[in-house]
Design brief:
The structure is a single chain. By secondary structure, the protein is of the alpha+beta class. Helices cover about 25% and strands about 25% of the residues. It contains three helices and five strands, in the order αββαβαββ. The protein has a three-stranded antiparallel β-sheet. A two-stranded antiparallel sheet has the order 1-2. α2 runs parallel beside α3. The protein is globular and about 45 Å long. The relative contact order is 0.17.
């Protein structure tokens, strides 16, 4: 949803999915999959993260737990939806202004 709304101001390379995520941390070996997501969240690589727990619940929960552990992200929006998958929410986070001081601190802040 965010990608559609931002289509005129972003490029395709700025959007990543949870499948086969690749991240090359500065000065370290490239990573793939969950280790790549974990390190990218620690490094505050993402300016904005959008998740729905309806489509990839395991990966969404894994990513949310990484954001909780680092406290590097602020939960900024909860957007309800209803489609062929059922009812749910899109959640938006942004990189916290101060590393380690994000407002997303527990999984109960999102509806799973």
């Amino acid at each position: 949803m965010s990608r559609y709304d931002a289509k005129d101001i972003t490029e395709p390379w700025q959007w990543n999915g949870v499948n086969y995520f690749y991240y090359a941390p500065p000065g370290a070996q490239p990573l793939l999959g969950d280790p790549a997501l974990t390190q990218a969240i620690k490094d505050r690589y993402f300016a904005v993260i959008e998740l729905s727990f309806n489509y990839y619940p395991y990966e969404a929960t894994f990513i949310a737990k990484q954001m909780i552990a680092t406290r590097n992200y602020d939960l900024i929006a909860t957007i309800p939806f209803w489609n062929s998958f059922g009812m749910g929410h899109f959640y938006l986070w942004r990189s916290a202004a101060v590393p380690g001081h994000g407002n997303f601190t527990k999984l109960s802040q999102v509806v799973i």
